[in-house]
Amino acid sequence: MKNYESYFVAKQPILDRNLATYGYELLFRSALEDDRAIIDDPDMATISVVTSGFIKSQEELTQNKRVFINFTEKLLLDGAPRALPPAVTVIEILETTQFSERLFDKLLQYKQEGYLLAVDDYSLKATPYAFLDIADIVKIDILNHDKVEITDIVESLKNRKALKLAEKVDDGATFRSLQSLGFDLFQGYFFARPENLEGRKIGSSHAVRIRVLAVLQQDQLETGQIVEAITSDPGIAYRLLRLLNSAAFGFSMKIESIQHAVVLLGNVRIRHWLQMIILSDIASKQHPQELLHLALSRGKILEELSLEGLIAKPSGDKLFLFGLLSLLDIMLDMPFPEIFHDLPLSADFQAGYLVPDSVMGRYLQLLYAFEKNIISEIIDSCRILDIEPRAVMEASIRAHAWAEAVLHVGL
C-alpha cells in the first residue's frame, strides 16, 4: 500500500511586453493528464494549490517570479493568502466575487501586507469598481470580447495604475495587436500551454488533524503550541520544511528543528498554512498509522534520551526531528538522496540517514536494534554510544505511550 498521496497542479507563464517571464498562474488539476480544471469544491481546489501546488511550483522558480492564485471569497475572508509569502503572491479576485465592506477591508489588509491584488476576468458591466480602485493587475479574457469591447476596456483603465494582463492570447497577431493597445502582461497558448506537475505528500492521521485544528482555534497561540502541533505528524513537518526551502523564501541556512522553522515563518503565516494543510488532508483516505506511530516513537525516544542527559548533542528538539523524518523514504517511496533535493536538512542529518557510522547514523542504528530486538546489536549500539540498554528501553516505553496518545486520544 502506498503511504503517500499524489497531488497535481498546472502552471502557466505570464510574460511582459518584452516576452520576459513576469510570473506564473497556478491552476488546480485533479489528474496528471487533465488539460483543464475539474472542480467539485472551489475552496478545496484552492487549498490544494496553496498547500501543495505552491511548493511544487517553486522547485524550478527563482525568488522574483510572481505566483498568481485564485482565491474564493470564503478563503479571502478566512485569511488563507497569509499562508504564502507576500513578496511573490498575487491574489486573484474571481469574477464571481461579490463586493462587501468586510471583504474590501480584508483586501486592503492584504495589500498593506505586501500582497498584489489581481481582478480576474474584468468586465465593464460586472466588475465592482471598488475592486478596481485597489487592484495592482487587471486580467482581461480576450476570447470573451471583440475588438471594440477590448478597446473600450483599455480606455476605461487608462487613468488607473494597474497593469493590464491579457488572458488567452493564442496567436502572434493577437499578441502584437494587444501590445499596440497598451497591454502590459500576456498569458495564453501562443506562449505556452499550462504545464502539469505531480508531487507527493504524506497524509496525516484523523486524530492528529482534529487535534491540530483545535489548537489553531485558540486566540492566543504561543510558538510552543504550534511546535507541538507540527511535531505530532511527520507529514506536516515534511511539508513545512519543503515550504521554507522554496525559492519564494530563499533562506540560506539549514533548518535543524521545528521550532527554528516556526520562528522563521512566523506565527501568523504558519497558523494559516497549517489550517489549510489539515483541511487538505481531511479529504484523504490514506492513513499510514503504523508508520506514523513508528516515526513519532523514534523521534520521542531520541528526545527522551537527550532530556535524560544521555545524548549530549544535538539538542532534544533536533533529535526529535531527526527521528520523526527517518521514515520519509518509505512514506514517499523515494530514496533519501532524492528527498534531500527538497528538504533543507543539515549535513549531519543527511549523513545520519545515509551513513550508519556517522554520529547521527549511530542513533538510528540504536533504534533499529531495539525495533528488531536483536540482543547482540542492542549491546553493540549501546556500548558505542555509552548508553545503558535499560535507559533506552525505558525511553522507548514512554515514547510509545506518547505516540499512542497522539494518534488515538487527541485533545
UniProtKB/TrEMBL annotation:
Q: Where is the EAL domain?
A: 1-208
Give the signal peptide, or none: none
The residue ranges of the HDOD domain are: 202-391
Under Pfam families, the record lists: EAL (PF00563), HDOD (PF08668)
InterPro entries noted in UniProt: dGMP_Pdiesterase_EAL/HD-GYP (IPR014408), EAL_dom (IPR001633), EAL_sf (IPR035919), HDOD (IPR013976), RNase_Y/CdgJ (IPR052340)
Q: Give the matching SUPFAM superfamilies.
A: EAL domain-like, HD-domain/PDEase-like
| Top-rank taxon | Bacteria
List, alphabetically, the PANTHER family matched.
CYCLIC DI-GMP PHOSPHODIESTERASE CDGJ, PTHR33525
What is the name attached to this protein's record?
EAL and modified HD-GYP domain-containing signal transduction protein
Native species of this protein?
Desulfopila aestuarii DSM 18488
